[in-house]
Amino acid sequence: MRHTEGVSAVGETTAGPSAAQHAGWTPEARARGAVATVDLDALRSNLARCAEAADGAQVMAVVKADAYGHGLVPCARAALEGGATWLGAALPTEAIALRDAGVGGRVLTWLAVPGAPFAGCLTRDVDVSVSALWALEEVCAAARATGVRARVHLKADTGLSRNGATPDEWPALVSAARVMEAEGLVEVVGLWSHLASADAPTHPSVARQLDVFDEALGLAEAAGLRPEVRHLANSAGTLGVPRSHHDLVRVGIAMYGLSPGADIGTARDLGLRPVMTLRARLASVKRIRAGAGVSYGHEYTASRDTTVGLVPLGYADGIPRAAANAGPILAAGAVRTVAGRVCMDQVVVDLGDDEAEPGDEVVVFGAGGPSADDWAAACGTIGYEIVTRIGPRVPRVPVGVTP
Ligand SMILES: *Cc1c(COP(=O)(O)O)cnc(C)c1O
User: Fold this and answer.
1) Is 388 in the pocket of ligand 1 (CB under 6 A)?
2) In this structure, are 213 and 306 located in the same domain?
3) Which of 161, 232, 250 to mutate to test the pocket of ligand 1 (most atoms within 8 A of CB)?
4) Is 235 inside a domain boundary?
5) Coil, strand or helix: which one is 197?
6) What is the pLDDT of residues 119-146, one digit of tens each?
7) What is the CATH number of the domain that holds 110?
8) What's the total number of domains in the chain?
9) Is the CB of residue 349 less than 8 Å from the CB of residue 331?
10) Active site residue 64
């Protein structure tokens, strides 16, 4: 590959979706030598796909962890434009950051510790999840202090054993919430839970959790609670377990264009498009001799005279060390495998006898290259971890922004 004007020349000569894919080389990104473009058109299209599967249920776009590494605020805005009516954040601070950036829609936060900023959530019109009596007490104290009635989603542990009230604890939590409703401090607007194995729809725990959830709903409603929304489904539930849909589905990974699990289907099967595309520019291109060891520990050896390219991304940027001799990278017109160990800042690719120059573009994953799911398979992890761990040294550049 040869570029007179550098990599941006590629985008200018290519029409259609690949033009968007080649956009994003801002001056900062060019100078850094790496960019993660975030395709907001793809995000909206993936959300539409999930909404179709949800068959009438509302959609919550889950934007925790900086929108799975894609950038909180641009993704949240695009999700609302794309038809989501709710946004989901794990931490209260994430929910607060959304509001402080001026983002609307309903917002739910679900992972609070004692002393969490419940008052800050209430004054910003953020719904809070309550899994235990201590949290209900803190939320009521925040309601008294702020004069704002709290909108609460009671969480049932139906079998994940993570957050949520167990079936043993549920009746007491429900009746305490009912009392606080009568006092005007809270309004229970949601009843919810989370599935352990929605990515394996025939796993017996799925049906069991659905049944336990139905019992929890029945008990809460018998106690007088009248929730606006019942919700249980993540992406896998949305796409693969219709009985989990209830009134609202919580979609994360599928919105970012990755598969929630092999049993549900590949991203392509599911009609999902990758939102993040990670690209870099070669920092070095040179010939090495047959027998030369490559990268720390010489876990790769050139089998013949060959050209190696240096990619300025390493484990500090979220490239897993487990990608040694395994991670796929599109470089000089073909998909190569990371040669040798992943360093803190860089990895080497073996280009054979193909031509390349310093500054040439490589695609680590995303549109036009290997997928983050391919990286996950190569590294023994899941696509979620691949995208979420891409670090702050990589500029995020939204593309497909609506004017
Ligand atoms: C992260 C999360 C989701 C979204 O899960 P995906 O598998 O990414 O769709 C939904 N609900 C809760 C409670 C979560 O923590």
Assistant:
1) no
2) no
3) 250
4) yes
5) coil
6) 999 999 999 999 999 999 999 999 999 9
7) 3.20.20.10
8) 2
9) yes
10) yes
